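Worked Example 4.2. Consider the chain below.
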Amino acid sequence: MKKCLLIVGILFLLLLVGVGVFIATFDVDRYRPLIVAKLEEATGKPVRIGHLSLGWNGGIAVQARQIALLDGPNTAQPPLIQADAVSALVELAPLLRRDVRVASLVLERPTIEARRDAQGRINLLGIAAPAAPAQSAAASTPLRAASRAESSNAAPTPVSLHIGSVRVEQGTVHWMDESVRPAMDVWLKSVTLTVQPVIPGRPMAVDVSAALAQERPNLRLRGQVTLPDASQPGKVAGFHLSLERIAVEHLFAPPASDEPQLRGLVTVAWDGALPTLASDQLLKQLSARGRLKVEQPVVANLNLLRVVLERLSMLPGLMQALESRLPPSYHTTLAATDTVLQPVDLAFTVEQGVLRFQDVALATDTVRMTGTGQVGMDGQLFLSSRLRIEPELSAALIKSVEELDGLANAAGELELPLAIQGQLPRVSVIPDLNYVASKLLATKAQDLIGDLLKRLAPDEPPPVSPSQ
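Applying the procedure from the previous section yields the following structure tokens:
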């Protein structure tokens, strides 16, 4: 028994030595032109690989340095995908059974370019092209195997591929959107991605963190993803997305400097699911729930209170009367350039590509708004609300312009319906002038009727003296 164990140990040692000698002497880089040619054939794009090498790290470690997938022969354009290094750790024992098991695949400092052109076409070839041929090849492998089996009457043992995990370290994603003016340029940096296990048609645990529009990571995404294949379009069974303290202006195309625009620091957290990854159904099928918070919210280049009062054009000379009669303490409020809001905290749902808000509550020092709203995936905002001006300022406004009394509610607040809409971050404020006119006419009618009744009432007879 001891001799058997000794023989097995010697054989195992010889095997390790043989593997070591093989790795040390085998020049895998001489196969680089062939590998480049096969990759270009599979992707339909030019491919560059700087150097190939073999090593040992608990398995055969294959490393490709300075790898890039180009968009075309023009080398002046940035590559669709490039990475400093791609390393694969292959388990040795399964290779003897024609079973390729990659324990880990690591991409070091990759950069991905993606863009949407002026016609709205999205170029994701840098992401999809490497996967598509693999899927088609995987789908066609059984057919080719069957054909060979029929011709030779002996089915060969297929080569299976399993990847334990994929990891991206210090990645960068560059998104250019030329369908808006000016063009939108977004960088996602410090991307760390972990995917495991990578088996076609089976759920994969995906965990991503990245820095969006800042240096430290502020974006986190976790979920169970099933990639599409020939039999199904893929799905995300559940995901959690969080984005912390990102400036609003980094989320949308910048407006002109003098246009009304929303500013602030946005924090969002939401949970949802994608029953399909088909591009034409992606947004329609997205469903999610979450919360949106905005710190230091400001509507720049717009004084909400002044705009509302200026829109009440059916009251001639309203602004002139207010400016001449209001107490000096309120002049600053009406003269301000921006509207400073209190911190915002809203619950939302996503259905059929639309972000919907219920129980919206926005407030400044002098006004508050409550209502409902929605934002489309194209950034189109519509908020229907009721605006109420705090009682003290309402009383001062009514004292300056008596006609405004018709808009006061039971609490002494001036109140009117208000819509806020536009293409974010651009916004416009639209009071419901029909409502205002009807309220003012009703109040005026009541006053006229009251005066008329007083004039029509018979004069009361003089009181009779007891002595008479």
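Residues 305-454 form one domain. The CA atoms of residues 89 and 191 lie 22 Å apart. Compare this with Example 4.1 before moving on.
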